[in-house]
Amino acid sequence: MASQIGILDLIIVLAFVGYICWRGFTASRNQKSPADFFLASRSLTWPLIGISLYASNMSSSSLIGLSSSGYENGIYVYNYEWMGIILLVIFAIYFVPLYLRAKLYTMPELLEKRFDFRSRYYFSTLSILVNIGIDTAGALYAGGILIQILFPVVDMGTAILIIAISAGMYTIAGGLRAVVFTDVLQGILLTVGSLILTIILFNHIGSWEAIKEAAHPDSFNLIRSRDDKVLPWPALILGLPLLSFYFWCTNQHIVQRVLGARSIDDGRKGAIFAGFLKVPVLFIMIFPGIMALSIYPELDNPNMVMPQLMLDFLPAGILGLVLAGFLAALMSSIDSALNSASTLLTMDFYKKIRPRSDQKELVRIGRIFTLLFVLIASLWAPYIDRFPTLWEYLQAALSYLIPPVVVCFLFGLYWKRATPLAAFMSLIVGGLSALIIMLLHALALIPYIHFLYVAAILFGLSSLTMIITSLIDKHPGLSESFADQFRAQTEEESSQTPSSDEENKTTDIKTDTSVSGSAYMDYRFYAAVLMILTTGVVIWFW
């Protein structure tokens, strides 16, 4: 089997890329306000939200990362997926109503409402760094791998630059509406393509026994022993929920889709729908990496597994469609991260500095920031190659950066005594502690600590700082938890006559209760089904 793309496949890929770029530029015609550009005019329905959430999560970097981790260490990586499903259900039930009633543009806004500007700017700056250094750079690196396989004469730096220019121009023009459109196409093509590839691989290998024989002894065990180097079970309990909470409940890159929902019910159902879409990831995106062990037993770079399988096993025409989906996933990852980073810098910083900026100026500045960010990510992406796998880079980086933010959100929403000074101090202490641990590791002054244990340690230090500082601080606490207080406030506001139809979309609480006439239309029914289904999969592969 030749590892090269045919003329038909190349035509399909180029036509598809041209089409989605065209759609991005046509979407720019209606970008007249920040709500249009950053939140798709707050008009997204639950199917679009669900597919977009799933597609942004199952990006090109995740697809490569999941398959390479499956190749290296088996299905353990699915722990991130089922934990994410649980957090999506929690997000839908408890956080979506709060966020939509607040009519937020960015997640750091909520920290300023609860604490003060210091927490907002810290989290906003951190979110921008994560979106550019992890999300965008990781996606560019994944795209560079694909371009190098398709066109071996192209070096990594040039490949990354080609992808960056294409996705950057598309995002600059279309905003969130164009991002969601790409997500829908990518989600459909990539899921169907992964399913076809899995079936072809299984038929090629011939039997389940042959797959198990070539795999590592514990490849099919989700829960690993205490001394496992990849994912010991204590780390699964202590650290993984923190990463999942950040990613699904506070990450601007992800939550921005829900902020663009037309109603609370659409936001909730969209999050739950995304959870259903994540369930089969184990079978169509991780298993192919395990199957590849019987085909490529000695790959030098595990990150090459999925692109190589596609090129070697997918027939002409189907390969072009799947590669188009892969490129759509790549562009979705990049445009999502760029759009969210641009939103953060525009609404959290630029608008504060220039409060009299009109709507057209904010949209124009958002596009300029998008261009700046894609250039920065392009410079950083080639250095990701120094990590063993792309997945390890993505998860390890988050483990050091996000635990203090999780502390601020949890304590800020549900502990009325937490004070603004305590929030800021917990962020500073957590950030400095992460830096110290990284330096000690780099200098080999302490033994290796699994990154999920690091996340738990940082969460504990930040929580302790939050509690002690709040109890010492003379700043008065709230009369009730912020979640209850803010909910009551926004319900009172929503009962008044809204000033426009746009406000009514996200403040009318009736959208949350009107579904009670039928259990099969209630988000709680689907949340329960999703939890039962997820539990069954986890028990099956325990």
From TrEMBL:
<dbReference type="InterPro" id="IPR001734">
    <property type="entry name" value="Na/solute_symporter"/>
</dbReference>
<feature type="transmembrane region" description="Helical">
    <location>
        <begin position="270"/>
        <end position="296"/>
    </location>
</feature>
<feature type="transmembrane region" description="Helical">
    <location>
        <begin position="75"/>
        <end position="100"/>
    </location>
</feature>
<feature type="transmembrane region" description="Helical">
    <location>
        <begin position="231"/>
        <end position="249"/>
    </location>
</feature>
<feature type="transmembrane region" description="Helical">
    <location>
        <begin position="188"/>
        <end position="211"/>
    </location>
</feature>
<feature type="transmembrane region" description="Helical">
    <location>
        <begin position="6"/>
        <end position="25"/>
    </location>
</feature>
<feature type="transmembrane region" description="Helical">
    <location>
        <begin position="37"/>
        <end position="55"/>
    </location>
</feature>
<dbReference type="GO" id="GO:0005886">
    <property type="term" value="C:plasma membrane"/>
</dbReference>
<feature type="transmembrane region" description="Helical">
    <location>
        <begin position="362"/>
        <end position="381"/>
    </location>
</feature>
<feature type="transmembrane region" description="Helical">
    <location>
        <begin position="316"/>
        <end position="341"/>
    </location>
</feature>
<feature type="transmembrane region" description="Helical">
    <location>
        <begin position="157"/>
        <end position="176"/>
    </location>
</feature>
<comment type="similarity">
    <text>Belongs to the sodium:solute symporter (SSF) (TC 2.A.21) family.</text>
</comment>
<dbReference type="InterPro" id="IPR038377">
    <property type="entry name" value="Na/Glc_symporter_sf"/>
</dbReference>
<dbReference type="GO" id="GO:0005412">
    <property type="term" value="F:D-glucose:sodium symporter activity"/>
</dbReference>
<feature type="transmembrane region" description="Helical">
    <location>
        <begin position="523"/>
        <end position="541"/>
    </location>
</feature>
<keyword id="KW-0812">Transmembrane</keyword>
<keyword id="KW-1133">Transmembrane helix</keyword>
<feature type="transmembrane region" description="Helical">
    <location>
        <begin position="421"/>
        <end position="444"/>
    </location>
</feature>
<dbReference type="Pfam" id="PF00474">
    <property type="entry name" value="SSF"/>
</dbReference>
<feature type="transmembrane region" description="Helical">
    <location>
        <begin position="393"/>
        <end position="414"/>
    </location>
</feature>
<keyword id="KW-0472">Membrane</keyword>
<feature type="transmembrane region" description="Helical">
    <location>
        <begin position="450"/>
        <end position="472"/>
    </location>
</feature>
<protein>
    <submittedName>
        <fullName>Sodium:solute symporter</fullName>
    </submittedName>
</protein>
<feature type="compositionally biased region" description="Basic and acidic residues">
    <location>
        <begin position="502"/>
        <end position="511"/>
    </location>
</feature>
<feature type="transmembrane region" description="Helical">
    <location>
        <begin position="121"/>
        <end position="151"/>
    </location>
</feature>
<feature type="region of interest" description="Disordered">
    <location>
        <begin position="489"/>
        <end position="513"/>
    </location>
</feature>
